[in-house]
Design a protein that fits this description.
This protein has 271 residues and is an alpha/beta fold. It has 2 domains: 149 residues, P-loop containing nucleotide triphosphate hydrolases (Rossmann fold), CATH 3.40.50.300; 80 residues, no CATH class. 42% of the residues lie in helices and 22% in strands. The protein contains 11 helices and 10 strands. A 6-stranded mixed β-sheet has the order 6-7-8-3-9-10, with helices on both faces. A 4-stranded antiparallel β-sheet has the order 2-1-4-5, covered by helices on one side. A hairpin with a 2-residue loop joins strand 9 and strand 10. It is globular, with a radius of gyration of 20 Å.
């Protein structure tokens, strides 16, 4: 059984069709990338996979449980977590406190022990802090544990969001444009984190425009175009697909690529 199974998902806003007939599956420990031109429906798909949008048709199964149409907290409790294309950092909090906010999903919370600061509650908070520190170190942020979040460089903030998502103990992590705005070195840090998570058994669904990153680390790639699945397969299969090349380069560019490698220059042909 696949960890995540998506069957026939569709979404419309008013009379506008955004997604139609989206079907794919993600296995444990797999890096599964979703790519496509701007407006293809990638972020809308992620929003349905985390309960932000309710699909108009289709089904979402996670670890054998039907999550179709469930609210966001049901997806989080089941073991799905995500980051966002635009940073969602609490800049009035420390970097460590940002991660600890995610950890509270897995803590035992009760009003009276919290008010009285019982020894059990204090021990739970200490564990939360220790676990959050370990997560920051896991994504390469050990140097920023005591830092205010608004002092972190942009690349570190991207990894801080990943650490906070990991604090919920997900079985599947969805990353929306984690390398956007990053330089080559910072993008490589995201590469390292994604590979490490997959090696540890956490599935990663990656939405990304950095084709070099996608083709280098993905086990499988789903290509969307105008709200439909254009292609699906290994990075090598997808990068050679004439329909994918045309979707990115247009008919004229696709013809040039067929004659001499222009697709590679645009990042489509990277294997």
């Amino acid at each position: 059984m696949s960890l995540l199974s998506v069957n026939g998902l569709a979404k419309r806003f008013g009379g506008v069709r955004v997604l139609e007939g989206i079907t794919f599956a993600v296995e444990p420990g797999q890096i599964y990338s979703i790519i496509g031109p701007n407006g293809a429906g990638k972020t809308t798909l992620l929003n349905m996979l985390t309960g932000i949008y309710r699909p108009d048709a289709g089904a979402i199964q996670f670890a054998g449980t039907d999550l179709t149409g469930q609210p966001t907290h049901r997806f989080a409790a089941a073991g799905l977590a995500r980051t966002f294309q635009n940073l969602q950092i609490f800049f009035n909090m420390s970097a460590l406190d940002n991660v600890m906010t995610g950890r509270h999903l897995r803590q035992r919370c009760a009003l009276l022990p919290s008010l009285l600061r019982t020894p059990a509650m204090a021990r739970d908070e200490a564990r939360c802090r220790a676990d959050s520190i370990a997560l920051m170190e896991r994504v390469g942020l050990g140097a920023y544990i005591d830092s205010a979040s608004d002092t972190l460089p942009y690349g570190a903030l991207k990894r801080l969001e990943i650490a906070r998502a990991l604090a919920t103990e997900p079985r599947l992590l969805l990353l929306d444009e984690p390398a956007a705005g990053l330089n080559h070195t910072e993008a490589r840090e995201i590469d390292v984190v994604a590979r490490r998570l997959a090696a540890e058994g956490t599935a990663v669904v990656l939405v990304e425009h950095n084709m070099h990153l996608v083709m280098e680390i993905s086990d499988r790639v789903l290509v969307l175009d105008h709200g439909e699945v254009l292609a699906e397969g290994t990075p090598a299969e997808v990068s050679r697909d004439a329909r994918v090349i045309e979707a990115y380069l247009g008919a004229e560019g696709a013809a040039s690529a067929a004659g001499g490698g222009e697709a590679r220059d645009h990042g489509v042909g990277v294997q």
